[in-house]
Amino acid sequence: MARFLGLYGGDILVCALILAGVVSVVWGMIRDKRAGKSVCGGCDGCAHRGQCHMQK
Asked: How do residues 5-48 score in pLDDT, each as one tens digit?
């Protein structure tokens, strides 16, 4: 087991960090979607603003 961790410990750590980053980005997007926040950050300059949001 120690030899396995010695050989692949760095790879496992890098993969775990990448996975944690992806999970945190996806989780943040889900939280923003539930809170009603826009993904684009605003539609003032968006060419499709009439199609993606109801105009008041």
From this structure: 999 999 999 999 999 999 999 999 999 888 887 666 556 666 66
Contact call for residues 49 and 43 (beta carbons, < 8 A): yes
Q: What's the domain range around 21?
A: 2-52
If one counts the domains in the chain, the total is 1
Contacts of 53 (CB under 8 A, 6+ apart): 38, 43
